[in-house]
Structures are given as C-alpha cells and as structure tokens.
Amino acid sequence: MERRSNAINKQGTTVPLSSNVVLRITFVIFFSLLITSILITRRIDDVVEERLGRNAISIAAVIANTPVVKEAVETHTALRDIENIISTVGRTNNASLVVFDNQYNPLVQYDVAGREKFLDLAREIVNRPLPTSMEIENLQYSMQASSAIYNDNNEPIGYVVAVMPNDLVNAIIDESMLLITLAHGIGLLVGIVGAILLARNIKEILFGLEPETIASILQERSAMLD
Length: 226
What we know:
Layout: H1 2-12, H2 17-64, H3 67-75, H4 79-93, E1 96-101, E2 106-110, H5 118-126, E3 141-150, E4 156-165, H6 166-205, H7 211-225
Antiparallel strand pairs: 1-2, 1-4, 3-4
Helix pairs in contact: 1-7, 2-6
C-alpha cells in the first residue's frame, strides 16, 4: 500500500499521458513545418525573380519582332498604333515598356509606376552588356530586359525595354507566403486533432490508467507473486 501511495503521489506531479502525447506530437509537427517554411520562403524569392525576369525578356523580344513595331520605328510613323500595343501589353503583364529609336530617343513609353527616372533607367538597360539585371541601386525596379529591333537588312533601328516593378515581385511573394502560412496552419491544426485522438485511443487501451499507475500495479502484482 505504501508503494502504491507513493506512486500515486508521484503521478500527481507528472504530466498526464494524453497531454504528454499531444504536446510532443504538436512540437514535432510545428518544428517540421517551421523548417519547411524557411526553405520554401528562400526558394520562392529565387523562383519569382527568375520567372519575372524571363517574362520581361519574352515581352521585349516579342514586341521587338512585331512587324507593326518594326515599320513604325523605321519610318517614325503610325506611332499611335504601337502606343496602343505597348499600353495593352503593359497593362496585361503589369510591366513598364519603352520603345527607342537607334539614337535612344523614346518613341513610345508606358510606365506602370509613373517614375521620372524611368527613361534614364531604360537607356541604362539598353547599354548594359547583359540583357537582365536583378538589382538596380536607388531605383525600385527589378527584372529588366532589352531587345534590339532590326530591319529587313538585319540592321538595328531601335530598342525595346521591359521592366517588371518591385511592387509586383513583393505582391507575388506576399501572396505565396500567405498561402504557405495558411496551409501550415491547417496542417498544424490537423496534426493537433490527430494527436488528441491518438492520445484518447491510447488511454482507452490502457483503461484510463497512467503509466505510473500501471507500473505501480505491476510492482504490487510482482510482489504478491513473489
């Protein structure tokens, strides 16, 4: 009786089995989801910038190879037509666009951000050796690309510049992070519910007894048999 009394007193100072199971499983799920979130977040930044960069390259190349644009740049006529094209493409893709002649004079432009320095940035992009750049100091733009416009004799007659604004990048990343957080929250909730059901099932199997109580009973039984 003294042993059982001591075991019961000891049981009162320990965490119940059901609570212990729920806490441990919750901790494992939370820690796993946290590590996953960190890895996914780092990857999302790279993927978004890469895809938007490719999108900027594609937009500039398609516009530069459009026959209407080529003719308008070469003759400096029908600028209204390419202005409609540029504004439509810019609104559809949330991109800033500029069409230059071969003297870097802007013929048509569409800037979603309305920046005063946009033309300076566009000229800088045209003169870069690389078609894209991920970082522009002191300018809130990223994912830029340029493409030359050639006439029938394969001579450069102008340039097209496409710029994806940082606001678009941040919006996509924020939206992705919101979905990831929501998914992980649902996963954690499902894990906690599963842990509670598992703890109840274990307790039913043990007839509602705690491990300390079972150990005490086995000790008493062993002592009685001896």
